[in-house]
Amino acid sequence: MLKAAQDRAKNRGHEPGRRQPGSRPPGKQGQTSQNPRRRRWSGAGADERDPQSLGRIAARMATQFGWSDRLAGGHVFGRWATLVGEDVAEHAQPVSLTDGELVVRASSTAWATQLRLLQRQLLAKIASGVGHGVVKRMKIQGPAAPSWRKGPRHVSGRGPRDTYG
Questions:
Q1: 91-143 sits in which CATH class?
Q2: More confident residue, 12 or 1
Q3: pTM of the full predicted structure?
């Protein structure tokens, strides 16, 4: 009886219309069971699914979202000492960069005058370090005047000079 059941099971796999476990249906011998449009490997060439460096991804996002101009402006502030030189950076700090105009505050009026004379050379150094068109003009300011206003209330007048009778 056992032998007869084994023979029936063996013969059942060879009947037309039945398939054996692990075999493929007729006509699909070269295809996998997955979606035929989807490959399972990237091959030898570069692919978007390959691991990417963080810098490449950040650069792609910056261009995609339009952050390139703001990042270039950030390079001016972050690398100020290397762009203009240590001696100039010691006495001048960038304040703002809007529409290609860089506002620089000098530590003294003498340094503000010196920076106005060196303005062309500074623009050339910044352009070579960051890129052309990032900084188009420079506005040099002297040191900020001290504020004599102390506290929340203020009486108008000429400052400390009006207390000396």
A1: alpha beta
A2: 1
A3: 0.55
